[in-house]
Design brief:
InterPro entries: NAD(P)-bd_dom, NAD(P)-bd_dom_sf. The chain is an alpha/beta fold. It is built from 5 helices and 10 strands. The strands form 2 sheets. Strands 3-2-1-4-5-6-10-8 form an 8-stranded mixed sheet, sandwiched between helices. The protein has a two-stranded parallel sheet with strand order 7-9.
């Protein structure tokens, strides 16, 4: 199965790309600047350089699976949040429908279920994620929506929970664990669409998602 990774030069996207290739997946990496992937060489990797604010439908040619891990980044304003986290995600979903993609994996965020439930400067980001998720939910695509907790730069623990911790400080997950989760989901296409939050926990992912 050929997988398109949108946002393959981001922190999670790049780790996911490297881990997918290590497992011999065929990967198409969609990036705005291909120089950010010069340290990755693999015969199963092809790179498409395209700004997500423009038409990138050609990147889905021959693709069976999409991982959307792109993000505008914390240093940008609400305009880029709207154009990347919402509009580019919506376009990717629409392109996937047209391309008859078999599985669409969305990296969302804790709080995307209820952006009004949190008073934070990232509320525009959560609204964008909420609307993108809703578009995917109603697209007719087979999907996996993953809503990670607050992201940390620790090494992967390999242990997860899909139950939201009681305290905000415990509602965290390592970026590398998110990448490992994306690889697992991409490698084990679920029988039915799924949406879940994901945090550092005490169980391996295959145990948490058994039967999907």
């Amino acid at each position: 199965m050929k997988t398109l990774i949108i946002g393959a030069s981001g922190q999670i996207g790049k780790m996911t790309t490297q881990k997918m290739l290590a497992q011999e997946h065929e990967v198409v990496a969609l990036v705005r600047d291909k120089s950010k992937l010069t340290d990755i060489e693999h015969p199963n990797l092809s790179i498409v350089e395209q700004d997500l604010e423009n038409d990138f439908s050609h990147a889905l040619t021959g693709v069976q699976q999409v991982i959307f891990s792109a993000g505008s980044g914390g240093a940008t304003g609400a305009d880029k949040t709207l154009l990347i986290d919402l509009w580019a995600a919506v376009k990717a979903i629409n392109y996937a429908v047209d391309a008859q993609v078999e599985h669409f994996i969305m990296v969302s965020s804790i709080g995307a279920d209820d952006p009004d439930g949190i008073e934070s400067s990232i509320k525009p980001y959560l609204v964008a994620k909420h609307m993108a998720d809703e578009h995917l939910l109603h697209s007719g695509l087979h999907y996996s929506i993953v809503r990670p907790g607050t992201l940390l730069n620790e090494s992967a623990s390999g242990l997860f929970t899909i139950n939201r911790p009681a305290t905000r400080q415990d509602a965290v997950i390592n970026r590398e664990d998110v990448a490992d989760a994306l690889v697992y989901i991409a490698s084990h296409k679920p029988d039915k669409s799924q949406l879940f939050e994901l945090f550092n926990g005490d169980k391996p992912l295959d145990e948490l998602l058994a039967g999907n």
